[in-house]
Amino acid sequence: MGDATPSNGGHAATGLSDAEKRELREGLIATVVGVGVDDAAAHLLIQQLSANPDALEAIIQPSLSDAARLAALHSTGLLDTPDSGALDTVALLTAEALATPFAAVSLLDDSRELIIGRNAVHGDGERVRPAKLAIGKFTVVSGIPFIVDDATVHPLLANHPLVLSGQVGAYAGVPIFSDDDEAVGSLFSWTTRPHNWSGGQILVLQDMADLAGAKIFHRPI
User: Fold this and answer.
1) Domain membership flag for residue 3
2) pTM above threshold 0.85
3) Which residues form the GAF domain (predicted)?
């Protein structure tokens, strides 16, 4: 996603009314949850994004910049050590348990995603990337798991650079919450080809996200 410059026939993201923002949030949640939950809201979101590809920024950026969420994020002390690999073991165990090639743990502030755990170096190998490239932002903003069997046909991911490049073909992410229920990041796994995520894999991913949260916030395991 780019800046808030309006595309032909659309509003600037910052010029959306409160009602339009509510519709966007409802559509985002419906699209993240998947087919059959609220197809009308998801369809409306797709229409809005067709008119204005940057429309989601009106709800994504304010959510990422929320003061309480950022306070919880900074309380981890991990934003200052992006290269520590503090949760590499959690990512490794996640990939092994899911039998998938890649897994990672990330924290997301208002401008960047920090990979604080990964089972393998992938792509450019960097542990910090711009928030606009973070697929995990959909998990953090919605506060619910984001499960995608085929990223190439998903309305939120089909045009994402990581999908277009072939690095991501399927994706499954679960939010990580602070003690005050602020979504600060996510645990996610992905494959380079479409993959049908099983119910068992999703349950394991949720359990491992709880483990990651316990380590990040020093909760009893």
Assistant:
1) no
2) yes
3) 86-214
